[in-house]
Specification:
The protein has 142 residues and is mainly alpha-helical. It is 58% helix and 0% strand.
Amino acid sequence: MPSKVAIFARHYTRLFSDPRMAVLFDTEEDDANVSAQEHGRRLALFLLARWTGDDSYYRLGRGHPIGNLYRAHQRAKACPLRHGSLRGRGFTEDQRDSWLGHLYFSAEDCGAPEPFRNKLALHLASVIDFYAPWERAPPDQA
């Protein structure tokens, strides 16, 4: 079984290479101007803290994970790389679906067994509506 950190590092590598998702990462922001591996490590450690009580995320010295996640997503929504009609608004349905799809295929790329990939994707799909309502992408961005 690959490490969760490896899966999420691959996930962010895929996100950074997807034009639909790359517009959410403003590298002018110091916190966002890190490698895909670092983004993946942060998210994996955050999820491990939530799911297992592991304290590795807290040892990063980055503060409370929920507050950090909230601020990161607010920055992503306001990212100047986003289409003007979406800047400052919610994520799009296409971005939601891409995020989940990239996660599933990242786990596959890392050799995770299908039952694990399915459980991981289903779990995250069940909680992703925390970020709803979803916006519709403008026709020139679909």
